[in-house]
Amino acid sequence: MSADPLERAHLVGIGGAGMSGIARILMARGLAVSGSDAKPSRAVDALRVQGARIAVGQAAANLDLLDGGPTAVVVSTAIKESNPELAEARRRGLPVLHRSAALAALMAGHRVACIAGTHGKTSTTSMLTVALQQCRLDPSFAIGGDLNESGANAHHGTGDIFVAEADESDGSFLAFAPLVAVVTNLEADHLDHHGTVEAYTAVFDQFLKRIEPGGLLIACADDPGSAALADRAEAAGIRVRRYGRTATDVTLLEHRPEGTGGVARISFAGTEIGVGVAVPGEHMALNAIAALLAGLELGAPLDGLLAGIAAFGGVRRRFELKGRAGGVRVYDDYAHHPSEVRTQLLASRPIAAPGRLVVIFQPHLYSRTRLFAAEFAEALALADEVVVLDVFGAREEPEPGVTGALITDAVPLPREHVHYEPSFERVPALVAGLVEEGDVVLTMGAGDVTMLGPELLTELDRR
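RE: above sequence
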């Protein structure tokens, strides 16, 4: 790879999921990395061990952490122009790259597979990565979550394949040029950035134009949004393969829960095949089929891919078991859109049976809570006990009247089974008083709700 401009890269917000992955790959390629983050984290500690020079707190002086200073500064959409490091980079006339542009530069010279969609990107990208590793192809990869197998979210491989989760939230996936593109589904989300459903859909149409000539789109036929996208792609002359219960390329004939996972029976190329998936839910079986199709297009053998998918142990914060205490199992999940909440609760039902399913949900973003409060309420009603926290605002300022109560007020369950608890500290005691032996508790959301799992386990042990 050319040493310019990423010979000495400074990453603002280096501890984030996307940035930390880029940093890992840069260092694995022998390039110098510095960065900063607002607070200490496990990711920051791991990058320091690997050789990155990182400051906690952001200041213009951080651009001098590397001898000679950076040859480029890498930022994400979340970094504002007023950020002191970005402002200093502008003052010095340094190249400033968006995170997606830096990742696209790392993809150069590889056969690229990009997994996009409103939901399921991280899991599908991870399944494909593990399956290709099982086939000894050693792909490079960049994923929005940590693989349970390796604990890593990125890797510089020796093979010629690069697998990447493609983020549509800010349109940054338009920097990539995939040979294989997967779209798991397409429905309204990230309207805080895109503004309208039509604009959000349009960015996927632009993504189609980024597929390399002769490349392939793999789309779920069961999802109306991705099915319509596949039709438009085919009309534009792009090769398409569809999967799902209603698809003809790869048909899901049956999915049955088995243990904490499931087995899918599919019809493919005139043959019925069993696909074992170690994680629960038909949605995960569909993700596995997408990964299987992508792997086959990249030249991997069917038997190796099936073995890799069966061995896939999941991703951090995707129905991740946090522990057991007092006969109660506690899981954690990243679901933060009504469809994701509904799908994960349905998948969790067989795991909880015959016990009850208790969900602790933290809404993410004021705009999303305001737009989808009724849909969240309907989805959460699939649980037996519902506890809703206040909104995790992330990048947004609070909106008057937008709280977790918007959701709890609309949950169609008896009031005694619905709880709005704005005090984070009171939640472990509240939930410990609700659960019984044999129950499953699921902490859910894209914010810091993940911290409650260990605290709840401690409270259950104390009792």
